[in-house]
Every structure is written in C-alpha cells, then in structure tokens.
C-alpha cells in the first residue's frame, strides 16, 4: 500500500481481521487448549479457556496407550519415501520437458495432470485386489508407491515451472564445458533449482502426510500413518476429549509448522503454475 | 531446439515417469472396467460370471445412487459457494494494511494443513457435539436449543467441515491474484472518478476471474472425492443422507463386498470427474503458452 | 590449430529452413565475425559449429576431422554466451575451473590455470565472489576466463557485448581484440552490430536469411560491397541507395553513395535539397536532407562543423569515383560508371 491509511481505519481493519483470523483458527486453538486439560475440564460447562490446570498427562497417555510414535514414524516414512521416489522420477522428466521441449511436451504435461484428476475410487478395487495378491496390503512399500504415483504429476509440474525459469544457456555452457548429462543435472541444474526443489518437497510432504483415502483403505495397523491413527479415535464417548485433542495436535503439529513455512510456494504448486 | 543426442536423452529421461503413470492409469482402470461387467462379490470370488451392464443398471437405478449424486452436488456446490465467496472477502481483508497481517495470514491458512481425519473429528466432537461442543454451548448461552448436527443436518455439517478445510486454499490463491493487481490500475480508475465499489466490480473482480476459475476447478476435483470426512463423522448416515458417490462406491466394496457394483460406480465417478477435468485441463493448457 | 570448414551445411526446423546450403572456410588464427540483422541465422550457424544444434545436412570439419556428429564438449571449442551463462551457485574460481574439473584435470594444474586466467583478466580481487555480486563487465570477463582456461582450438562468441552499456562495450571490444592478438587462436564472433564487425574482424561474413551475402575483410566490404544488402548494412551511417533517374545516369538500376562521399555546398551542386535534421557533433556534422531526387531523406556527413540548420537549402554532389553501381538484381557492377549530364 503506497498511501497512508488513517489510524482509525487501520485499527478498525486490525480488529476485524484478527476476529476473522481467530474464528477460522478457533477449532485448532480450542483443540490445542483442550489437549492440556484433564478429561473433566475438557467437558466442563461452561467451557474454561485458559484458567485450568495445565497438564501434559494426555500426551503421555497417547504415547503409552496408542503407540503414537509408531504411526508418526509411518507418516514420516510414507511422506519422505514417496517424495524421494517422486523426485528421482520427476527431476529427469522435468529437465527434459523444460529444456528439450517438443511439440508433444505440452500434451504430455496435460495428460499427466489429467491422471491426477482420476478419482481414486475409480481404481480402488483393482489396486486393493492387487495389494492383496502381492501381499502389499498394510505395507509401507505399497503405500509409498501409491502415494508416489498420485503425487508424481504435481511434482513434475512444479519442477517443470521452476526449471523453466532457469536459462537454457547455462546448461548449454555446461555441455560446452564437457559436463555429462548426469553432471549437467546434478552439478548445474539441481544446485540452481534448490529453492524450487525444496518447495516441491515441502508441498509433496504435506500432501502425502494428509492423504486420507489410500492410507485409510490400504492399511490396518502395521503401515498405518497418523491419518488412520486419528480415525481410530472416531467415536470417543464423553470423557476422551482431552486425549483426542492431544492426539490431534500430535498429528497435525509437524505439518502445520512445515506448511506455515512453505505457504508462498503452495499457491504455485496447487494450481499447477496457473497462479503464481 | 537441440541436438539429436539431447533429444533422445530427453526422451529417455521422460520415459520412466511417463511409463509408470501410464501403467498406473491404464491397468487399474481397465481392471475396474472389466470387473464392472462381472457378477463379482467377495463372498464368492471364484464364480464371477459376465453380466454385461447389469451392475450399471443396478448401481444407477439404486435410489441410494440418486441420493448420493444429489448429496455430491450439494457438497461440491455448497463448499464452492462458501469458499469462493468467503475467500474473496477474506482476501480483500488480508490485502489491507493492519497490525499483525502476517500472523493473521498464518491463522487463516492453518486449517489447510490439518489432515482430513483430524478436521472431521475435531469438528464432530469439539465443535458440533450437542452437549459438550463449543457451538452447542454458545447457542445455549444465548438461550437457543443446541443442534444435534450429525443427526439432524448431517450433510450441512460435512459441508461446513469441508468448507473450513478449503477456505484457506481459496483465500490464499485469491489473495495472490489480488496482490498481482497493479496499483496503477486502481489509481487510474480512482483518477477517473470510480468509487470503491465500482473499482471492485470493474477492476478487481475481472482481474481475479482467472484465479476464481482455477479455484473452482481444482476444488471441484478434490471435492468430488471427499471420503475421510464422511467416514469419521456420519459414515454416510443417517440412512444415506450424507453419502456421496465416493463413499457409496467404497462402501459397496468394503462393507458389502460387491466388487462388480463398486467397479461400475467407480467408472461412473471417473466419468463425472472427467467432465470437470476437461475444462480444467483446457484452462491450464491455454495458460502454458503464456 | 583451429581450422573450421563448413561444407554444404544446412539447417531446418521442420519445414522452416533457417540456413540453406552454405559453405565457409575459417582459417587457423582468424578472427571471423558473423554479422547480419536479427533472424539472419548467424546465431544458429554458431550453435551448429558449437554442436548445440544438429545440422540437417552437410559436414562440419574441425582441424581436418569430421565433427558433424561430435557432442559439443568433444569439439575442442569454447563458447561465450550472450547472457554470459555463468553458474550462479559457484564462485568465480569454481566457474572458471568447471570445464577443467569436467575434463578430470588434477587440482594443482586447475589452480595454476585459473589463477593465471584470473590475473590476465583482472579478476583476482573477485575470485571468491558469486556471479550475482559482479558487474556486467566483470561477468563478461569471467565468461571469457572460463573459455580461455580450456585452451580451445577456437572461441565462439554469441553477441557477447549486447548486454553491456555503450561505454563498457567499447572497452570490452578492445579487450577481446587484445586477447586475440595475444592468443592468436581462431575466434568466431556473432554480432548484429556492424561497428563491432568492422573494428574487430579479420574476416567478416555477412548473412541474410541464412545465406552468405559476402565474405571479406572489413575494408573489402566497405570498398566493394557485392550487393545492395551489404552496401546498406556495412558502414555507418548507412549508404544512400537511389534508384530511378539518378541511377540511370550511372547506367545502373541502383546507385549508392556513402554519406561521407557527398560534397556539401550552400551554393551549388548536383542535387538541391532542404535540411530536415542537422546533428552537430563538433568532429562531424550529419545532415538529413530532403531532396526531390529520392523519396527518403539523404544522409550526408561533413567533417568538422558545417553551419547549416533545419530548413536551410543545401546542394549535394556525390564524389564520382566513390559511387557504387548495382544492376537490377542488386548485384554490384564493375567500375564507377559515368554520370551523364
């Protein structure tokens, strides 16, 4: 804003904006507060805001009773594994599309995008049956592959839009300087694209972390990530609110922090470069 | 524009990604198509006679299907209306100058990072529970009767939960579009004597129109396949009041073990999604050359 | 050694022919400039020689060996790009060392060569900076440094000065010329600026639409342009080209005379005209004169100050032995012809 706004108006806007922000954030804030209450305080009428005896008991209970870290570890495995696999496949593909485009490049990109639009439920049954057949049900490997496949188009797209911004002349210079294709990508392109690759990783970790169709349908316990862990709290009766809150906070906290840091890149990734 | 050498290298580099996606798209889809013509249940998986379009006629004439189709439409349109309308308003608000703008931005986008199962459970128990939920207590404190959200208005409840999850997405994208509007344009309009409302109507809104289209199309893709939110709250009920197509299809397979009908339903879902996808792909394709 | 022979080289992108068959000989140690208007194919030609593009037909022979299908790195050529194409994530030292590292040279030798190159290019004070922290001229020197450490058979320059401001450009032009004097390595230099071509080249190749219009030393091109295109392209300001009656007086379809070869007078002369714009530089005076003999203003150069201004009447007389004559195909005709009447 180039012009000064009157002080009164600015204060008015501040109050309104904070009110809207807090209303939207309220469920998360409330969950956060409740996670430190005793079960009794959690359901007290009228509700207490901060004037309660803060306790970490719920977090301890969650870990001992439900083995939180097992699910947390699975979430990390799945999101990092599928992202790493995605980069291995997507970096070369995005390199080719950005720097050696042909008449068909655009079609290939759009086709990849269209696979992302295939509703999961359309292929759930064969994938489910194949998972049974190959013993992949409730295995981390199987889920990593599925998450990798459903996010591959987004990874390719994001990398493609970032690579496009790198001048091709620099890669040609590397070629003139005697760099092999592998060195051209690993020593010239990748270091230059670090910010783009980092945002791609962040977005993809967020998407995999929160994926809740395949992770719910293809796991039972062994490979189950946090989405399934939370789903098991589906019907807590009465006095489980505090523990549900603690479990929820544990499930969303890591990704909430990652997400807050990567908010700028999100727009670009989620709109396939259509809005920057 | 390169040498034959780099061109063939490019093809080789693209091949793995293209091939895995091609397999991922074709093989399961072909299998779904094939299963959809069989009388195939998990109770008797060894006898799967060919039945032609019977699964389709069964699935499409099932009253639950029509209910699910209607629910899907309500869900998608309801969430779109709330997120786009609310997103525009909040984006306009966040574009203003005020104290703590960065913190409020973080507060507003936070719900997007909450995994669907957590969002649904938190809303179901902490917010919407008629006795202990915050909303119920709020209503009671002003003398109104609490609402049993999940039983009385299950579909509306899910619309609210999903809209809460997607409002940040719409806001963030619309805000990005808003901030790319050059000050010059607004100032020129002001010099021409335009009032704030006409500036919004004739300058700001047209500038955001493409971002709005993108928001609508991308959200539609995701909203068509809402699943976890239903699973952990209403489980589609009561009856089929909050069952959407995705949930119905998954239910056919996992609860009733009817692979044939579920496959037919999956194909129907694919066709529905494709109608939207065609528009989205065209829009993004146009943008590619620019 | 740095001989490059192009034999019947052709380049087309699909149906679009960029370079129809072309032959060219570049001798060892020559400074060759490809010059032409934008879109003439000069950069494409350079990229073909570099190996960054495939030829559609023909052969590229470097030092007697067929290099047509060799990858860029195997051709022994170094290139300086228009955008400098420095590696932004590497220091100046690492940028210059990169080709040597790729060649697998040992560390001590790399350091020795990089230090030497940095010293000769006055880069020693910047050696640990990143390209982003350098000025345009310094980046240009790093790009040159990266090219010279390889001790290539030939250097390729793709419009290397076009991103620099005017003052810096003159300085870099001198530096590149000096570099050529010192290294005596073949250099191929692409530019659209005929002043760069005239001042730097041993041999100029004038290109238009992928065709070679003329090859020759700067003076040859200036004195004996082969056709109207070269005549109009080489020399600054441009040669005046007149058709119709005036050309007929010289038994030509077109007659040309350079601005510096027209005698100016306020009293009498062959062509009467009115000054439209006068540019007084002190050392020279450029006049743009409207005259009934030509539908565009004629450009005239007078040495020193010539005190006329817009609206004044002047008389112009082409120096008869400096007149160029072209036939109806635009090709130069022998002799100066004789003005009739």
From TrEMBL, chain A:
Positions of the ABC transmembrane type-1 domain: 72-262
GO biological process, one term: transmembrane transport
One CC-aspect GO term: plasma membrane
Subcellular location: Cell membrane
Pfam families: BPD_transp_1 (PF00528)
SUPFAM superfamilies linked: MetI-like (SSF161098)
CDD domains listed in its UniProt record: TM_PBP2
The UniProt record lists the keyword Transport: yes
Membrane topology: Multi-pass membrane protein
Metal-binding among keywords: no
Keyword terms, alphabetized: Cell membrane, Membrane, Transmembrane, Transmembrane helix, Transport
InterPro entries reported in the protein's UniProt record: BP-dep_ABC_trans_perm (IPR050901), MetI-like (IPR000515), MetI-like_sf (IPR035906)
Transmembrane segments: 12-33, 76-96, 108-129, 141-163, 184-207, 240-261
PANTHER family, A to Z: INNER MEMBRANE ABC TRANSPORTER PERMEASE PROTEIN YCJP, MALTOSE TRANSPORT SYSTEM PERMEASE-RELATED
Family to which the UniProt record says this protein belongs: Belongs to the binding-protein-dependent transport system permease family.
Name the UniProt record assigns to this protein: ABC transporter permease subunit
Native source species: Jiella pacifica
UniProtKB/TrEMBL annotation, chain B:
CDD domains reported in the protein's UniProt record: TM_PBP2 (cd06261)
Topology class, membrane: Multi-pass membrane protein
GO biological process: transmembrane transport
Main subcellular location: membrane
Subcellular location: Cell membrane
Spans through the membrane: 12-35, 65-94, 106-123, 155-178, 199-228, 259-284
Domain ABC transmembrane type-1: 69-280
This protein's GO CC annotations: plasma membrane
Protein's UniProt keywords contain Membrane: yes
Record keywords: Cell membrane, Membrane, Transmembrane, Transmembrane helix, Transport
InterPro entries on file: MetI-like, MetI-like_sf
Recorded superkingdom: Bacteria
Pfam families for this protein: BPD_transp_1
PANTHER family per record: BLR7065 PROTEIN, INTEGRAL MEMBRANE SUGAR TRANSPORT PROTEIN
Family assignment from sequence similarity: Belongs to the binding-protein-dependent transport system permease family.
Protein's name according to its UniProt entry: ABC transporter permease subunit
Organism: Jiella pacifica
Organism classification: Bacteria, Pseudomonadati, Pseudomonadota, Alphaproteobacteria, Hyphomicrobiales
From TrEMBL, chain C:
CDD domains per UniProt: ABC_MalK_N
One of the record's GO cellular component terms: maltose transport complex
Keyword annotations: ATP-binding, Nucleotide-binding, Transport
Keyword presence, Nucleotide-binding: yes
Residues of the ABC transporter domain: 4-234
GO molecular function, one term: ATP binding
Glycosyltransferase is among the record's keywords: no
SUPFAM superfamilies on file: MOP-like, P-loop containing nucleoside triphosphate hydrolases
Entry-linked Pfam families: ABC_tran, TOBE_2
UniProt topology in membrane: Peripheral membrane protein
Compartmental location: Cell inner membrane
Family: Belongs to the ABC transporter superfamily.
Protein name: ATP-binding cassette domain-containing protein
Organism encoding this protein: Jiella pacifica
